[in-house]
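Structure in, sequence out. Go:
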């Protein structure tokens, strides 16, 4: 898979501090756009998960949002620190009610 081969490049650009803002934005947009299929989504999740713990506060929200979207679209992909649970359907009793 070509995306996995490019992961070191993506990580290098996304890890630059106070540099390459346009490139970071384009790469992030590209990675989010290819995360609709399961295999690329797993690679993108690895990249975003690494960036969440190493990046600046400016970039962190977009990586967290990307991980959240991947978790919602692909629950079979294990993410290191996000446990996705779909919201409860209205009208069904909540398990914590009555306890």
């Amino acid at each position: 898979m070509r995306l996995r081969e490019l992961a070191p490049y993506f990580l290098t650009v996304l890890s630059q501090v106070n540099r390459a803002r346009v490139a970071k934005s384009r790469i992030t947009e590209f990675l989010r756009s290819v995360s609709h299929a399961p295999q690329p989504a797993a690679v993108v999740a690895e990249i975003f998960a690494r960036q969440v713990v190493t990046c600046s506060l400016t970039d962190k929200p977009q990586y967290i949002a990307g991980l959240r979207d991947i978790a919602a679209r692909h629950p079979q992909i294990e993410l290191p620190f996000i446990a996705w649970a779909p919201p409860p359907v209205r009208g069904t009793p909540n398990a914590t009610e009555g306890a």
